[in-house]
């Protein structure tokens, strides 16, 4: 069988499926190749969607347990049905996968299941699960093969006791204890899920704070919140080894004083970052180059060294986020279409789905200091928000960093209830260069969590907050 397409996309994650939809919308004869039997990639199957389903379920359970009584809601004996919680998670994944299948059909995108490998810059060999191989030819290709979990020296992931987020999202029974290496995004989200349902969780983080790539004040506040949930957070600790003892794992690490320490738990979750995935892609049959981190090199138009092959998402440079991959999928297709699209990488928001949530866009305070850029700071605590008091969600703050001369917003960093949704307003403000004083003058519904941003803008602009 031989197929000739305008655009073939390799990988059906958020980058790939979004690129395919945009390509079909623009009239290209489009195909998408996926090696697994489910479309959706990491995000839909073992990432964003299942983790958020479990984060919601575990937060509901934790709320009933810890926050209902004070509101006068008395429930009988509370019981956790771990299997049902995970079954629901799988159902949510299934619904999302079938949503993507529907979108492929609706947009008349040909879906080809199998592992794609370049034969030339115009031809793929796609090997199906039954071992048969088909040639797929196309004028253009978009590589969207994503990423896989990485590890550190001395820690070998065996997927049994020493596991990644993929296994942690599908455990068959509730464990007693988990030690998590890495206090980045996966570390704190998975820690939240398990600690809320009563698992003893320890996070061992190498840097001096949690979520260390975000604004430092966020990590410090998050550490307080997670510690209150019962999570043991160890920062400034370097993990050296992990050993599977059969029924448990022992993790060895050096503490702040460089003393050797060890801790045992039922599972060790390795959450020290992810690496780009290009294995078996046949890149050696093309001119495509990799950078020292194994990422596919592209120009600003996302073109590789082969002019007709583009690459997007986790497999190239930049933050590993679903919405970044999506934006790049659209950009690559529109470039092929002859348009001049643009992505403002500084305005891609980052969200951590703990409770309260953490959300951030633009420069951190540390980055502004390092670059020698002057800034004004407005920081408003959720404890002073009427909405936050009404719901009992008084932890956290909204912090804005603005240009002292023109009032341009340089960065917004929020830890607080619904921060994930509030941040969208900050992205709009920054994209369209609305000033801090203008943002302090518009009307925000009362009482809402978003009012914390209004007061922070007022503080940064120098006119003073109205609620503190
Ligand atoms: P992927 O989603 O990784 O998809 C790549 C696809 O390519 C896969 O389906 C793979 O099977 C396929 N493939 C690879 N090689 C081949 C080949 N040779 N032939 C055919 N197919 C191939 N991001 C967020 O923005 N928000 C979140 O809340 C969030 N939560 C996350 C939670 C977890 C636990 C994890 C692990 C990640 C999370 N992420 C989140 C990150 C997000 O999942 C990734 O940034 C996103 O999936 C990247 O999309 P992608 O399209 O580049 O690649
Ligand atoms: P990460 O880069 O966010 O965090 C890894 C952490 O491990 C860092 O804090 C790092 O300092 C620490 N670390 C590294 N070596 C260590 C060692 N020897 N000992 C102790 N700690 C060590 O990576 P991640 O949490 O694995 O997540 C991977 C990717 O998935 C991220 O890029 C993230 O963007 C994406 N993701 C996003 C979301 C979201 O958007 N909500 C959720 C989950 C994952």
TrEMBL record:
Identification of the protein by name: Dihydrolipoyl dehydrogenase
Species of provenance: Dyadobacter frigoris
Endpoints of the signal sequence: none
Any single Pfam family the record assigns to this protein: Pyr_redox_dim
Domain Pyridine nucleotide-disulphide oxidoreductase dimerisation span(s) in chain numbering: 348-456
MF terms in GO: dihydrolipoyl dehydrogenase (NADH) activity; flavin adenine dinucleotide binding
Disulfide feature: 43-48
An individual GO BP term: 2-oxoglutarate metabolic process
EC number in record: 1.8.1.4
Gene: lpdA
Keywords: Disulfide bond, FAD, Flavoprotein, NAD, Nucleotide-binding, Oxidoreductase, Redox-active center
